[in-house]
Amino acid sequence: MKSLLELQKREMEARLEMMSKMYAKPFALPKLSSKDDVDGFIHTFENVMTINCVPEDRWVHWLVPQLCGKAQEAYNRLALEDLQDYQKVKSAILEKYQLNADAYRMKFRSSKRREGQTYKEWITHIGDMFHKWMKTSGVNNVCSEMRDVLILEHAFNMLPQDLSIKLRESNPPTAKILADRADDYEVASLAIKGKFHGLISRSLDLVHADEI
């Protein structure tokens, strides 16, 4: 019994030492500016906190120094008992920027793939907007099948027509599989175009050589 207690004590001491080193170690945090997308800022901040294993009850400690403008104002207007509650701080900031259910619904419905963005990244973004739309609407339980149906339908409507037709024919069961197939199709198309251009270039070189 005594040895077990000693082992637990050593484990606790090791854990505390690790946490102490972790919090002492600086890591890069995004800093909000007046031009930033606050939704993207919050998303990046949460990712940094998560990968650095910072408990959520410590997130406000790291968040507040990164705020400015309306976000800082939203924090300052919170009740004293809510100042250390990350979810309440986050909700106050998003509300200040009017990022409510309607805003996320519009973001979801209008989401188009950006130049340089993979289909996987685009579908992930759509899924994130859908999740936030549901959450801010008070809907906490959406079955994965319904989620995929809505995301797939939106994606099909936004894809280039030829790609949309081709992917509909393959009947992808999930949004993730749709994204993988779309990326594979794009890579294959670029490879074919590259070979085609290479053949044309070599043909022109041969023509010029014959003329000489």
TrEMBL record:
InterPro entries with a match to the protein in the record: SCAN_dom (IPR003309), SCAN_sf (IPR038269)
Source organism per UniProt: Holothuria leucospilota
The SCAN box domain is annotated at: 105-186
Q: What is this protein called?
A: SCAN box domain-containing protein
Q: Which residues form a coiled coil?
A: none
- Which PANTHER family does the protein's record reference? RIBONUCLEASE H (PTHR46888:SF1), ZINC KNUCKLE DOMAINCONTAINING PROTEIN-RELATED (PTHR46888)
